[in-house]
Design goal:
77% helix, mainly alpha, 5 helices
Length: 142
């Protein structure tokens, strides 16, 4: 069995990039709308402990995403002809199909079963797609 070519530095860079994206996405870009759609009280601020706990879990989750995504992308390198695909094609293929198969169904289920709004769906699923595109770009070009 062949070893998968995994770049652990790229994984760490993807973790940091997606952490920064999450901060930007859910605070200055869509934070107020997201909080309203979630039914959160924006007049109260989370405690430092709650913020630290959330950030720690977010970093752990970003690591799992980047680590597994890197392995998934590397596994495709063994498919005949994949080495001839342009890098942008590999990025789009990896990110869009992962989003379409794993994130989009869950995001739709949240609207359907948890009765969340389509606006919230757009914010969350947009984040998931951009997050995957960023991770795929970093993992491909590094």
């Amino acid at each position: 069995m062949e070893d998968l070519p995994i770049n652990y530095v790229a994984i760490l860079v993807a973790v940091v990039a997606n952490f920064i994206l999450g901060f930007l996405w859910y605070t200055p870009l869509f934070g107020k709308v997201w909080a309203k759609e979630m039914g959160l009280d924006t007049s109260t601020k989370p405690t430092n402990r709650e913020m630290a706990k959330g950030m720690i879990f977010m970093v752990i989750g970003n690591f799992f995403l980047a680590y597994v995504f890197a392995h998934n992308m590397a596994a495709w390198s063994f498919v005949p002809g994949m080495d001839q695909m342009p890098k942008i094609g590999s990025i789009m293929n990896s990110a869009i199909f992962t989003w379409l198969g794993f994130y989009l169904p869950v995001d739709i289920g949240i609207v359907t079963w948890e009765k969340k709004s389509w606006k919230l769906f757009g914010i969350n699923t947009g984040y998931h797609l951009v997050m995957l595109l960023i991770a795929a770009s970093i993992l491909t070009y590094m």
